[in-house]
Amino acid sequence: MSLASLRGVGVRFARAEPALAAVDLDLLPGLTVVAGPNGAGKTTLLRVLAGLLRPGSGTAEVLRDRRRIGYIPQDLALDPEMTGRETLALLAALHGVPRRERSDRIARLAESFGTAKHLPRPVASWSGGLKRRLHLAAGMIHDPDLLLLDEPTAGLDLEGNDFLWAELERRAAAGRAVVVVTHDLAAAERHADRAVVLHRGRIVSYGPPRDLPDLYRRLTGEEPE
Amino acid sequence: MIDALRAVAWRTWTITWRRPVLLTFSLGQPLVWMLFFGFLFHRFPVGEGIGYLDFLAPGVSVMTVLFGASQSGIGWIRDLNTGFLPRMLSTPAPPAAILAGKVLADAARLLLQSGAVLLLALLLGARLHPDPAALTAGLICLALFALAFSCLSAAFALQVHAQEAMATFVHLVNMPLLFTSTALVPRGQMPGWLAAVSRFNPLTLTVDAWRGALLRGEMPALRSLLLLAALAAALFLLALTRMRAAAGRY
């Protein structure tokens, strides 16, 4: 069952080269990583899948119900004056999570990301790594069927990294679709079910993540970061 | 919709109450106005049986709402800069609920602050004679005024994206409004042209309604109530448009 389907999708911004060109993709449940050099179109692809960007050409069939989609951008988006618990509770309310389920979800996510004991403190007092974990947890508070993460491991400490991949694998195993843009190809090879390699706005590979670093070098002509 | 509105309003209140120093200082300015103007012009004739401090207290009370509402935009700039506003807008919650939650919480705080100003005025010797029904109607006028100017401040802030520009807003909007209104001076003491201008000033509409309710127990004119409601609705729509446009740029 495909959760998003792209046919001949093209996106062009002001620059000469298209950000995406003739992209065909059927997104299945499980953990999919998107890799590619800088400027390959990874974030653009994610935004099209999230329904935040309408393609200039082709068709994108994505989930219409925004409550079923979670999009976590790379840049932190937290209010430093709110506590961790207040942040999660507010976003749960805005995502329409039923009131009676909110406490359990907050507790479970905080446990998964190792932030439980920090929740009562204002975010301004959290370390950079902890803020990143809260940023990620906040994007999952509504338990979306399609979760899209843009370079979630950037700025994440080692422990946070482990928490993140474990949580993503758990979601994928539960039949959800998880799409992760990452430069960490070794982790992608270890955890993902499928890998998309993008180069100059085109999908040059879509399949199992076996030998992903070698595949990446061969297809893009660049060294993985 | 209601749940989202309540959650945003609660968040606004929570953050506000964490800054008691700011709340205290926001009462300092009206106190200074009442002390200086109240005692400087205490012989100023404002009406039969009414002292200048009695006349001034409702004016400064509404002025507190105006100045507080005009600072409301700073919170929106903060939320844009931290990326939290785009994050809130990327949820399925209606943007109108997010805007309404914030401006309603701000308006409620401003009403409490204007009440505190009246208590200060009573301590300084002002004499008020409110009637419960008129007071309720006057409060509705004050609330609509607070909503309208919180929305205007939000629209300006979301247009300029710079906290420094809010000082310009205060001078550009508040000062002309204040000095062409009946907040500090009765209409009868104004030159003819200024008295004519003051009739179209929303601050005058609110001050007259609030003063009438507090000093004479008079019900506000229905026309004032409707005009303030229309202004609040129009500025709410303006702020909503600016909020969507600003979030789209991030």
Which blocks of ≥5 consecutive residues of chain A have pLDDT under 50?
none
Q: Kindly give the count of domains of chain B.
A: 1
Class from secondary-structure proportions of chain A: alpha/beta
How large a portion of the residues of chain B is in β-strands, by DSSP E? Answer: under 5%
Shape of chain A: globular
Radius of gyration of chain A: 17 Å
List the secondary-structure elements of chain A in sequence, H or E: EEEHEEHHHEHEHEEH
Describe the overall structure.
The complex is a heterodimer of chains A (225) and B (250). With 225 residues, chain A is of the alpha/beta class. Chain A is 34% helix and 24% strand. Chain A has a domain at 1-63 and 179-225: P-loop containing nucleotide triphosphate hydrolases (Rossmann fold, 3-Layer(aba) Sandwich). In chain A, the strands form two sheets. Chain A has a six-stranded mixed beta sheet with strand order 5-6-7-3-8-9, sandwiched between helices. In chain A, helix 2 crosses helix 3. In chain B, 78% of the residues lie in helices and 0% in strands. Chain B is built from eleven helices and no strands. Chain B has helices spanning 2-17, 20-40, 52-70, 73-81, 84-89, 95-124, 132-160, 165-179, 192-198, 202-216, 222-248. The radius of gyration of chain B is 18 Å and the shape is elongated. The model of chain B has no long low-confidence stretch (mean pLDDT 89). Chains A and B meet through helix 2 of A and helix 1 and helix 5 of B.
Please tag this protein with its features:
heterodimer, A: 225 residues, alpha/beta, 6-stranded mixed sheet, 3-stranded antiparallel sheet, 7 helices, B: 250 residues, mainly alpha, 11 helices
